[in-house]
Design goal:
With 651 residues, the protein is an alpha/beta fold. Among the domains are: 174 residues, Rossmann fold (3-Layer(aba) Sandwich); 105 residues, ANL, C-terminal domain (GMP Synthetase, Chain A, domain 3, 2-Layer Sandwich). The chain is built from 21 helices and 30 strands. Helix 8 packs across helix 9 and helix 14 crosses helix 16. The structure holds 5'-O-[(S)-ethoxy(hydroxy)phosphoryl]adenosine. 5'-O-[(S)-ethoxy(hydroxy)phosphoryl]adenosine binds next to helix 12, strand 20, strand 24 and strand 25.
Length: 651
């Protein structure tokens, strides 16, 4: 863990201002009480949160049924996520929210749409009826492969209204990746769009769906939103237009009374093998955790305008663009396009235009903006901001300080939030009115969350020290499994330590008890805050007819956090040249998507391996991060000698 030295020299600390602390949803005193309760009894703490923050049709009989590693939360209770996100803001004391903005959307070309809670409710009911008309029933999986447009949020909420779990596939994934995810989930229906806008141009989605669906016998229907008006093929009997179906549908659809453990969504994420895992989340526990963390960590008020810049294709977008904000009755901003289009100040212009008060983004974006220069945010009035957040990867103290100074005008607390697709909601974070922050530290576990640091033997690291980040107690938003693969679920998360969730991250605790997340310690790379398994990229590379063998590692990168470096042994007949580099990068893009495209490909006539045949990734990581990169790709590197030298300490 190379960065730990410099991190631990970090002495700067920031107290919440008295003004912020005074108005905070959770005061210091309140937080102290919750911490005490959560430490003593996580179930009592979470039951209290579930009662206060979520509306239930039927109360639970038991808070937690824990048969490690399988948890059931709020057993016997009934609720509905779309009811919590919509209906409850239209009735009783909150009925005034009917005309409050639920979603403020801006497309990349500058077109906008504002949906009030009243309007969003109608649209969601309509689409729920469309789903029903297409034969989608409770329990059926629906795949959403869409750009960042309001219809995506509408489709999600419609699925939750009838109890059909959604599986969102990020629009940047290729047709092959989409096909595999559709087949794994056995989705019955796909919602997509003709395309979307990025970097000033329209990209296509429907063509990808056509290619994918040609090999997915489970898919019966495809619903297409018209966004870019580019020509698309509509296959009669299978495909239909969103607007035509919506025009026919009624705005009346009762929310289904669903069991707290009814599957809510699947979200595929990369692991250490080539096959992505369908992470399963369920209804009541997930809703409790995202609603509670959103209210406490983002300190949301009815006057706030909240903007999380994540794409809904990732878990951050699920939990903090859609479910957390809407279930709190907040106004959430959705932006379709690239941060720097048409100019490097697009994001800052959006903050000014919509009066954003709470802003949540990723360190990779912050580092990009640092490089682009302070003059771009300086062109805009960012004084509406009162709170900032960071997620997805460790934030280096210098990026934190820039965020604090240039974007936050030194007045906004920063919440650095650690969590994962698997945890559903935020697990470690400052509470902005109650916790002093330190640049680079996610600070302390949320009340009720039992995070610990263990050494290799499973012994808790007491006080200051580093090791593996684990969660000792179940939490309501936790994954309930990997879709269709309970054995992999146990093996991946619960086999390293007994009855303990292993997160795959390294962490350090300082003398104040603060957590410093050091990043992945397994074969998962974090590229621009997106998880990509080394094995996935390797499988893609070896599926090329030119490749005999490939090994992929991450190399530290100033902007993206990690850059993908591939070591490739070409087949005997193939010439390793620049042309091959281009072809292989293109091949990975086709197999997985542009996010997995290696930034560097190095050819070698043999990969360094241990005597037992394992690729020596540590050695390759060292080579990849080394400054002396061989420019001439036509020379085959030979690591066999080095490998022999190092084999003994890796075996
Ligand atoms: C990393 C994203 C440091 C971590 C919500 C984790 C972080 C992985 C932080 C999960 C943070 C996320 N500080 N590292 N604040 N937040 N990570 O599933 O390595 O896309 O395991 O979920 O991102 O990525 P995922």
């Amino acid at each position: 863990m190379p960065d730990i030295e410099s991190l631990l020299k970090e002495k700067r600390s920031f107290k919440p201002s008295p003004e912020f602390a005074k108005q905070a949803n959770w005061s210091r005193k309140q937080v102290a009480e919750y911490r005490k309760l959560g430490a003593k009894s996580p179930t009592r703490f979470w039951a209290k949160m579930a009662k206060e923050n979520v509306a239930w049709f039927t109360p639970w009989k038991k808070v937690l049924d824990w048969k490690p590693p399988f948890a059931k939360w709020f057993v016997g209770a009934k609720t509905n996520v779309s009811y919590n996100c919509l209906d409850r803001h239209l009735e009783g004391p909150n009925a005034w929210r009917k005309n409050k903005a639920a979603i403020i959307w801006e497309g990349e070309p500058g077109d906008t749409r504002v949906l009030t809670y009243g309007e969003l409710h109608k649209e969601v009911c309509r689409f729920a009826n469309v789903l029903k008309a297409k034969g989608v029933e409770k329990g059926d999986r629906v795949c959403l492969y869409m750009p960042m447009i309001p219809e995506l949020a509408i489709a999600m909420l419609a699925c939750t209204r009838i109890g059909a779990p959604h599986s969102i596939v990020f629009g940047g994934f290729s047709a092959d990746a989409l096909r595999d995810r559709i087949n794994d989930a056995e989705a019955k229906l796909v919602v997509t769009a003709d395309g979307g806008y990025r970097k000033g141009a329209a990209f296509g989605l429907k063509a990808m769906v056509d290619a994918a669906v040609a090999q997915t016998p489970c898919v019966k229907s495809v619903v297409v939103v018209e966004r870019t008006k580019q020509p698309v093929e509509i296959v009669p009997g299978r495909d239909c237009w969103w607007h035509e179906e919506m025009a026919k549908a009624s705005t009346d659809c009762k929310p289904a009374k669903l069991d707290a453990e009814n599957p809510l969504f699947l979200l595929y994420t990369s692991g250490t093998t080539g096959k992505p895992k369908g992470i399963l989340h369920t209804t009541g526990g997930y809703l409790t955790q995202v609603t509670t963390t959103f209210k406490a960590i983002f300190d949301v008020k009815d006057t706030d305008v909240f903007w999380c810049t994540a794409d809904i294709g990732w878990v951050t977008g699920h939990s903090y663009v859609v479910y957390g904000p809407l279930s709190n009755g907040a106004t959430t901003v959705m932006y379709e396009g690239t941060p720097t289009h048409p100019g490097p100040d697009r994001w800052w212009s959006l903050i000014e235009k919509w009066g954003v008060t709470i802003f949540y983004t990723a360190p990779t974006a912050i580092r990009t903006f640092i490089r682009l220069g302070d003059e771009h945010p300086a062109k805009h009035d960012l004084s509406s901001l009162r709170l900032l957040g960071s997620v997805g990867e460790p934030i280096n103290p210098e990026a934190w300080m820039w965020y604090h100074r240039v974007i936050g005008g030194k007045r906004c607390p920063i919440v650095d939030t650690w969590w994962q697709t698997e945890t559903g909601g935020i697990m470690i974070s400052a509470l902005p009115g109650a916790v002093d922050t330190r640049p680079g530290s996610a600070t302390l576990p949320f009340p009720g969350i039992h995070a610990e640091i263990l050494d290799d033997k499973g012994k808790p690291v007491k006080g200051e020290g580093g090791g593996f980040l684990v969660l000792k107690q179940p939490w309501p938003g936790m994954l309930r499994g990997i879709w269709g693969d309970p054995a992999r679920f146990k093996e991946t998360y619960w086999s390293k330590y007994d009855k303990t969730y292993f997160a795959g991250d390294g962490a350090h605790r300082d003398k104040n008890g603060y957590f410093w997340i050091m990043g992945r310690i397994d074969d998962v790379m974090n590229v621009s805050g997106h998880r990509i398994g080394t094995m996935e990229v390797e499988s893609a590379l070896v599926s090329s007819p030119d490749v005999a063998e490939a090994a992929v590692v991450g190399r530290p990168d100033d902007i993206t956090g990690t850059a993908i470096v591939a070591f490739v042994t070409p087949k005997g007949t193939t010439t390793p040249d620049e042309g091959l580099v281009g072809r292989l990068k293109q091949h990975v893009t086709k197999e997985i998507g542009a996010i997995a495209r290696p930034s560097e490909i190095r050819f070698t006539n043999a990969l360094p391996k241990t005597r037992s045949g394992k690729i020596m990734r540590r050695l390759l990581r060292d080579i990849a991060s080394g400054r002396a990169v061989v420019g001439d790709t036509s020379t085959l590197e030979d690591f066999s000698v080095l490998a022999q030298l190092r084999a003994s300490d890796e075996d």
